[in-house]
Design goal:
Elements: H1 12-62, E1 71-72, H2 85-91, E2 133-135, E3 137-140, E4 143-146, E5 158-160, E6 162-164, E7 166-167, E8 184-187, E9 213-217, E10 247-252, E11 257-261, H3 275-281, H4 293-303
Parallel strand pairs: 1-8, 7-8
Antiparallel strand pairs: 2-5, 3-4, 6-9, 9-10, 10-11
């Protein structure tokens, strides 16, 4: 009688070793998978910015080179509903978008699920700059609230997680309005103390379109002076990896999109900033917030009585 053949089997120790190896591999692979996902989401965001730039260019081509306004308004305070550049592009068929959805080119996949301008400012919370804002919108006191404007065919609330480089003095009367200072403006704001209203910007006002920032990761518009990481009430959301605190995906006035690190993102000037630093940040060949950097810097120099 032949003896029984013993079947091969794992011992308990061998099983534990295999499980330990699998656990080690998972530990090694998970960070790489997480990084790959972040890279993929950043690529989607960059493509969304590119599509936004194309939509804005097509809009300008259909409107005698008028740059799409950050929004249209009727007075200084913004007490009436303001439409918004994203709802305009959606309403007029330049970019498809759904109501309060994240699945549009107006929403970065790395957006933090937070209403960035619920109280009117982002304050000191860095997460709010990485959040979103709903448009059309109405400002009541210090609060921003989404509203529909059916009489103007704005029948969707568009969730937007991008900042637009605009002259945006809503809520108070400013001393003066500088025409064509930034990529676009809040058309209809006024009167300023000098009696002027913000009017439409034309593409011809963009003297360095390949360097001029149009939109970027962030919320709302304006406050170009507060673009650095850690600055109170900043509107720029550095959602992606990069030097100096992250990077933002940016659409430029000529229609291309690229990455700008927090270290290299330029500021506009106010009395709290250093004039020489602003000149350096907006110098030729670098990204700029000014439609005509040379003219804007010359005006600043004159106002500051600098030699």
């Amino acid at each position: 009688m032949h003896g029984r053949t013993r079947k091969a089997a794992f011992t308990l120790i061998e099983l534990l070793i295999v499980i330990a190896i699998i656990a080690m591999l998972i530990g090694i692979l998970l960070p790489a998978l997480g990084a790959a996902r972040k890279t993929a989401r950043a690529a989607v965001c960059l493509n969304s910015q590119r599509q936004t730039a194309v939509g804005m260019h097509t809009y300008a081509g259909d409107h005698k080179e008028i740059v799409i306004p950050s929004y249209n308004m009727a007075d200084v305070t913004g007490a009436s509903a303001c439409d918004g550049w994203a709802p305009i592009l959606e309403r007029d068929g330049y970019i498809q978008g759904g109501s309060q959805t994240r699945s549009t080119v107006f929403y970065c996949p790395e957006t933090i699920d937070a209403e960035g301008l619920a109280t009117g400012q982002t304050g000191k919370d860095p997460l709010l700059t990485k959040g979103w804002m709903d448009w059309p919108n109405m400002r009541t006191g210090s609060k921003n609230s989404p509203v529909l404007i059916p009489e103007r065919n704005f029948t969707k609330i568009i969730r937007v997680s991008y900042w637009v480089n605009a002259n945006n003095p809503i809520g108070s009367q400013v001393a003066r309005i500088v025409d064509d200072e930034f990529f676009t403006g809040s058309v209809g704001y006024g009167p300023a103390a000098d009696g002027k209203y913000i009017r439409h910007t034309r593409m011809s006002a963009h003297k360095r379109p390949s360097s001029l920032i149009a939109t970027a990761d962030g919320v709302y518009a304006g406050r170009q002076r507060d673009n650095k990481v850690g600055t109170e009430n900043s509107r720029i959301g550095y959602r992606h990896t990069g030097a100096g605190g992250g990077s933002a995906n940016v659409a430029f006035a000529d229609g291309h999109a690229s990455i700008v690190t927090a270290r290299d993102f330029p500021r506009g000037f106010n009395e709290a900033t250093n004039y020489a630093a602003i000149v350096e940040e907006n110098s030729y060949g670098k990204p700029t917030v000014y439609a005509d950097p040379d003219a804007s810097i010359a005006l600043l120099k004159s106002r500051l009585n600098l030699p």
